[in-house]
TrEMBL record:
A Pfam family it matches: LptF_LptG
Entry GO terms, CC: plasma membrane
Transmembrane regions listed in the UniProt entry: 20-40
Localization per Swiss-Prot or TrEMBL: Cell membrane
Keyword terms of this UniProt record: Cell membrane, Membrane, Transmembrane, Transmembrane helix
Protein's name according to its UniProt entry: LptF/LptG family permease
UniProt topology in membrane: Multi-pass membrane protein
Protein source organism: marine sediment metagenome
């Protein structure tokens, strides 16, 4: 019975690490696509408003948690 418990814990850990690594990879890919598309869409607005680079970075840093929560 003890061997079964050890193997089950090992299998759980393996499945969990594989799942989390795939999940993190997908999240990074979606966030990258979101940022690229949003920058391309809003670049004209940023240029017209003469927004400084620091403000654009702050905008995306504050927008990122909203996107991740979706």
């Amino acid at each position: 019975m003890r061997t079964f418990d050890i193997m089950f814990k090992l299998l759980d850990r393996y499945v969990l690490t594989r799942f989390l690594s795939i999940l993190m990879g997908a999240m990074v890919a979606f966030i990258t696509v979101f940022l690229v598309v949003d920058v391309v869409e809003n670049m004209d607005k940023f240029i017209d408003a003469k927004m400084p680079r620091q403000a654009m970075v702050a905008y995306y840093l504050y927008t990122l948690p909203w996107f991740v929560s979706i």
